[in-house]
Amino acid sequence: MTPKRPGGGGALPGPIPVEPIGPARPDPAELYAALDLGTNSCRMLIAQPKGNQFHVVDSFSKSVQLGAGLERSGRLGRASMARTVQALRICKRKLMKHEVRRMRLVATEACRRATNAGEFMQYIRQETGLTLEIIEPEEEARLAVVSCAPLVSTKTDQLLVVDIGGGSTELVWIDLTSVRQIDRPKAIMRLHTGFKPTDSPFPHAKVVDWISVPLGVATLRDQFHDVDDDAARYALMSWYFEENLVEFTPYELNQQKEGFQIVGTSGTVTTVAASHLGLKRYDRNKVDGLRMTSEQIDKVIREYLALGPVGRRNDPRIGRDRHTLIMSGAAILQALLRVWPTDRLSVADRGLREGLLYAQMSADGVLESGPY
Predict the structure, then answer these.
(1) pLDDT tens, position by position, 79-130
(2) Which of 12, 76, 84, 367 would give a disulfide with 195, using CB separation of 3.0 to 4.6 Å?
(3) Alpha carbons 154 and 174: distance in angstroms, whole number
């Protein structure tokens, strides 16, 4: 599999408009919804604009394993689709309960790759009445960046945002040196309009390069399912993922630790953080925004390896939904830290759904003082 690249001499994508649903001038108190159907999970947020942020009113998250068997067959399986539709029925009930009219419901890598994705979208409409759109990797990367902006330090000159999904991993490299320190988080938020420079009078963050590697926690695990030795499988996954980074422009650059920040958003990153904190019951307030050193991350991963498959399955810090995926995610994370050595990684319990909400609310003008 070849990582997806911007076309035309490294061109970066322009903005993808959000089609408003409902009245042209929305009520600022109106609710918004964002649904992310990924390779492994179906997740939704319902939120209300509040100042320059939003307040979550309701949420849903379920492991549906939509991509199970996709690596071998190239198609979404019957059981996977049935599990997903069942989850989407719950989402539909929540949308109706809260009378949500403004929403964006998207699907990502599994549906991008499946040969029967079109049939599945029609099946979803018939069974639930919901219309999902399959978004391109460019938009997925852009929305992940926007969601992580509040976690970026004003002292950051070079930023790498990493979104480790079930079927793909998006990396975006951003140069902030031309933006005043106090304006850097806001400049990143303005990327919700697109990665290309605009004529806006506001300072903008420069996207040096981005890449979508078609390997996530589920697809990378499936690539090496036939390797019996746990430690050997982990090492092979990590090095294989790194081989897929060679076309990413900053891969060859010798980056300085000072002024460099990695922000990681994924279930892998938050699980590693929860394990580091020793949380037997997940607490988003303790995890989101946590900064972990590379030594702390390595220590957690060594503990995972020492536990073995049975130990990881019974470890309450990992959870039954994630124990089969955590080592492939850790392999991706450690590959990134090996390529770009940094003292700290910022943990983001946020991602595509939050980015979708920010983009919709910003387009409607219901956030105070812009999108941040």
Answers:
(1) 999 999 999 999 999 999 999 999 999 999 999 999 999 999 999 999 999 9
(2) 12
(3) 13
